[in-house]
Design goal:
Blueprint: H1 26-42, H2 60-65, H3 90-94, H4 97-109, H5 111-126
Length: about 130
């Protein structure tokens, strides 16, 4: 709907509609809208009846020069993410990721007990 194409009109002009999908980022929404607007601009809609044309139909000049497209039409081209290369240092080699995760998970699990013990120890010191 962001491209101005109603859900019921889209299948009639060759667009598939999936109601489950959502654009979760502004970048993808804008690229999809741009792609759909480009498709709409290139689209030639023939009238159902040759003598009667409706508001959404193409002009007779466009109909005269229209050709059938073979193969893929306007494929989605994704940009490849850039990979940043980093020199491996001794510090990176000696880092034990699994051990670090285990320690942090244990710290997170025992945070309440440790706070309680610290509060009790503080009470004992005040007495």
């Amino acid at each position: 709907m962001a491209a101005g194409i109603p859900k019921k009109l889209a299948p009639t002009i060759g667009m598939s509609v999936d109601h489950r999908l959502k654009n979760r980022s502004l970048e993808s929404l804008q690229s999809n809208v741009q792609r759909l607007n480009t498709y709409k601009a290139k689209l030639v809609v023939f009238p159902r009846r040759a003598r009667k044309s409706k508001a959404g139909d193409s002009t007779p000049e466009e109909l005269a020069i229209a050709t059938q497209v073979q193969g893929q039409y306007m494929p989605v081209v994704l940009e490849k993410p850039t990979v940043e290369l980093v020199k491996i240092t001794d510090e990176i080699k000696s880092f034990k990721a699994y051990n670090k995760l285990r320690v942090e998970r244990t710290n997170e699990r025992h945070v309440g007990v440790r706070q309680k013990r610290a509060a009790e120890a503080e009470k004992e010191d005040k007495k």
